[in-house]
Each structure stands twice: as structure tokens, then as C-alpha cells.
Structure to design on (287 residues):
């Protein structure tokens, strides 16, 4: 994209040049923050989203909805309502995702060093405390993906600090993966109930017996082709019936079963419910 090379120009001139190259822009006031809601949109009464994670249906002509107000329309940028904001603007911001870009915001020397060792080289823009690394391609935005590292793309804005240096390269998978959350996990409750009096020693005798039982339970869940919910519950019930009363069953064993169930598409919530229901059915809950 063609970009203005002189950020010392008036914010309006810079904004119009960026918009002409297909980069949606908005004014920033002092403190690098967008202009707040106008009277019409106070407290997002117009339908805009308070946290600006998604744009609301508001068609307000003022630049008062953060990144969602960013535009490439020169008529809007030059309108009287925007003119008031430009007069008070301290800087220009842009919506990277709207321009098909992703900004990796590196906020410290340590973050820059990490990027140099971990990410493909691309265009860089110096910032007050670090650098912006710009890639071609949009993705989900996220803060704190690494110490001192934020991702700014869709539903976010970045301050315009100049065109930067270097060739802009395609958004790599390693950056996309930084916003992917790890699968949710829980620590299944394992209740060890003493064996009834007179029942003798633990019937499992060796860890091999228990491990074989857990492996068979994992296989039963993995091979389920239908009624996965019911299979998971029945398997949990069988495992707890056999191994839940003597203290041999550990959280590690139970977590293996949860992992197998989640691999079949079960949610953590369903796994937890099935485990709790099995405990209750067998009278293994604390009462």
C-alpha cells in the first residue's frame, strides 16, 4: 500500500493520504485514545458496544466509536463533525484488520529481542518504547500474548507512526497461533472412599492393573462412534466403580479420561458433569 512518509503533517492530511491507500483511519486525542461517545451515543445508547469488541448498528457521523469508526471515506473524514475532532487530534490511528494487516506491537527491548529470534522478518516501525512489526493478513487481536507483546488487527486500532522500513511479509502461522487458547482443562475431583471394613487389601495390588484399566477406558471412549455423551458417562461410572474407593485413582488418571472425552468433542463442562454424576450415583461424594 502507498503510505504517507511524513508523520509531521497535520493529522487530517495524513489521514486522507492513508485512507486513499485503503487504510481505515480515525483521530486520536491526547493519551493515544479515541474520542469518546458524542451526546447522541452517550453510554452507547445508540446501540454501539460498550467494550467495542464488535461494532454496533450506530450510524453516527461522529468519530466516536473507537476502531469501529475508522473509515476510508474522504467525505466522512472531511465532514464538519470529523473536522472538530481533527482540530483536537493528537495523532492518527488506523484499523489494521480493516486494511488486511496485523501489527505485532513490541513494547520493550526484551520483546523486540524475542521477536527477532521467533518471528519472520517483516516491515518494522519504531514506537515510543519498542517497535511495530507489520504483516500482510488479518487475524484476531489479543493483548499480552507474550511479555510486552500485543497483537493488533481486527477490532483494534494502532497509532500511525510512519510507513516503517523493510519489506512487508505474509502473516505467518506462528503469529496466528499466538492468539489460539489452549484447550480448557479442569482438575477432576477424585474422592477416595475407604474400602468397607473387612474387605482386605487393595484389590488392585500393582499399578499395572490400574493403568491397564484406564487404558481400556480411554480406548472405549476413543472408539465410540455414536452416543458419545452416554459412553463417556458409562465409562466414568465403570472406572469409579472399580477404582474409586481405595485411593488408587489419582487426578492424573482422571485427566487422561477427560482428555480422551474432549478429543471426541465433549466439552469440559460435560466431562465435569458426567464425572460428578458418576460420583453421586456411586455415593462417592462428600456428604
Amino acid at each position: 500500500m502507498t503510505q504517507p512518509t511524513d508523520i509531521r503533517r497535520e493529522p487530517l492530511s495524513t489521514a486522507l493520504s492513508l485512507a486513499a491507500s485503503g487504510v481505515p483511519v480515525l483521530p486520536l486525542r491526547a493519551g493515544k485514545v479515541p474520542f469518546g461517545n458524542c451526546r447522541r451515543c452517550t453510554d452507547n445508547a445508540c446501540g454501539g458496544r460498550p467494550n467495542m469488541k464488535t461494532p454496533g448498528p450506530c450510524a453516527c457521523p461522529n468519530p466516536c466509536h473507537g476502531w469501529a469508526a475508522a473509515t476510508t471515506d474522504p467525505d466522512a473524514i472531511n465532514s464538519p463533525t470529523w473536522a472538530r475532532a481533527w482540530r483536537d487530534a493528537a495523532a492518527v490511528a488506523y484499523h489494521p484488520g480493516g486494511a488486511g494487516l496485523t501489527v505485532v506491537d513490541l513494547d520493550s527491548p526484551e520483546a523486540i529481542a524475542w521477536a527477532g529470534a521467533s518471528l519472520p522478518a517483516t516491515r518494522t516501525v519504531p514506537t515510543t518504547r519498542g517497535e511495530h512489526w507489520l504483516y500482510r493478513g488479518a487475524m484476531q487481536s489479543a493483548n499480552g500474548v507474550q511479555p510486552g507483546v500485543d497483537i493488533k488487527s481486527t477490532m483494534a486500532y494502532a497509532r500511525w507512526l510512519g510507513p516503517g522500513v523493510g519489506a512487508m511479509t505474509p502473516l505467518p502461522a506462528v503469529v496466528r497461533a499466538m492468539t489460539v487458547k489452549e484447550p480448557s482443562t479442569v482438575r477432576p475431583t477424585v474422592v477416595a472412599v475407604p474400602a468397607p471394613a473387612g474387605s482386605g487389601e487393595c484389590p488392585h495390588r500393582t499399578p499395572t492393573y490400574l493403568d491397564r484399566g484406564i487404558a481400556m477406558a480411554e480406548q472405549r471412549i476413543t472408539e465410540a462412534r455414536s452416543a458419545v455423551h452416554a459412553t463417556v458417562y458409562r465409562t466414568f461410572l465403570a472406572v469409579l466403580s472399580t477404582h474409586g474407593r481405595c485411593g488408587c485413582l489419582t487426578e492424573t488418571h482422571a485427566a487422561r479420561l477427560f482428555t480422551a472425552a474432549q478429543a471426541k468433542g465433549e466439552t469440559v463442562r460435560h466431562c465435569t458433569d458426567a464425572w460428578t454424576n458418576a460420583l453421586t450415583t456411586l455415593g462417592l461424594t462428600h456428604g
